[in-house]
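Morning, I've got a small favour to ask if you have a moment. I owe you a coffee for this, so here goes:

…
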Amino acid sequence: VQLQASGGGLVQAGGSLRLSCAASGIIFSVNHMGWHRQAPGKQRELVALITSDGRTTYANSVKGRFTISRDNTKNTVFLQMNRLKPEDTAVYYCRSMHHSDGTNYWGEGTQVTVSS
């Protein structure tokens, strides 16, 4: 199983980034997909989740700014991040979770740095 995240980088506050996570080795369409982040000295937290049937949830801190989506034809989940803030700086990880048995996998992270 491989979850390959990409799209991180350095951006100024107020800017945008789009993260992608390409999955292989899983049946993508039956997995919930999530984006998590971990800032230095802090615990990893859930940022956004999209279920296998397309329902979405977001952390309060990113509601209205971030949008999670998925393309089951490309086995890819996306995180569109707009109006970025310095406090969004973190390593972002994608995670899959099978919709019925809960088997989950983590990808390697991608660094997002937002300068003020």
The longest strand covers residues 90-98.
